[in-house]
Design brief:
Layout (H helix, E strand, L loop, with lengths): L6 H11 L1 E3 L2 E5 L6 E3 L5 E5 L10 E5 H16 L3 H7 L9 H5 L8
Bound molecules: zinc ion.
Amino acid sequence: MTRRDSAKDRRQCFREHHKFDDRGVYMTCHICGGRIEIAVEGWEAEHVVPHAFGGTEVFPAHVKCHRQKTSEEDIPRIAKSKRASEKHFGIRRKGANWPKRKFPNYARDE
Ligand SMILES: [Zn+2]
């Protein structure tokens, strides 16, 4: 996702998607379908078609949903390297044995 969350996009997004009801002004998150209470929750204007591909349509999404979508869809799609896919499928682990492997020479020091 292009990091281009400009005020212009947010304004356009708000103008096109906000609604009113007895609880106030809200928008609908296009990722989870839930209500965004714009007075209290963070939201982001997301380009459904990446802006790099000429997308101009913006839809509102919770910050949380947007971040999740970005990490689960966009990043794997972009990161084609072996390293990234190994990590994605749990082959590489950031787990417990890391420090030992990181300093393999310490035992040799006599
Ligand atoms: Zn959401």
